[in-house]
Amino acid sequence: MRKFSLEHRKKLSIAKLGHTYNRNRKHTKESRKNMSLAHIGLELTKKQLHNLKTINIGRKHSKEFCEKIGLIHKGLKHSIKTKKKISSSKKGCITWNKGKEMSKVYREKVSKSLKGKIGINSRNWQGGKTSLIKRLRNSNKWKDWRGFVFVRDNYTCKICNKRGIIIHPHHLLPVAKFLQFIFETWNGVTLCKSCHIEIHKIMKMEEKCLMKLYQIQML
Facing residues of 209 across strands? Predict the structure, then answer.
């Protein structure tokens, strides 16, 4: 294999600067097939693998480059076909961090980097699109209220008296209409999943009936 000197390689790279002869060009199906067939059976040497692994070590993208990448990928979503391809390609693969534990130093760095990054400062901020009820249900107050209701009712459904099944906390006064009583303990009751679904069905039916009666009276 003929090897070019560093000076010659630099000259070649300078000469090619600004050349756009292959920009926006696409390979034909035949050429792609030929390329794939040509690479079948080829194995990289240990040196080539080492170079591929270490080529980007210590390198960092500039802020402008990162911003450009962000703008390019903004709003882009994978199609169902590509999602299926990705999932099928990753089946049976073992993740690089399986069984590995983060060091104390690394965990401290992560915790420090995330401290105070709440709301607008959070990396997952999406313009405040989460509803108020959803935010309240994810809060610690909600968890405390739910825990108190479950303990008070001895983790049993108040309708069917079943225990040891999936249970939900139910508001006697609907949250949508009486938000001020969301964390009141008297407003909570323990129900199993099936009873909770049935109660909400009845509540919807009652609301429809009341609306119909109101419309009849207004005529």
Answer: none
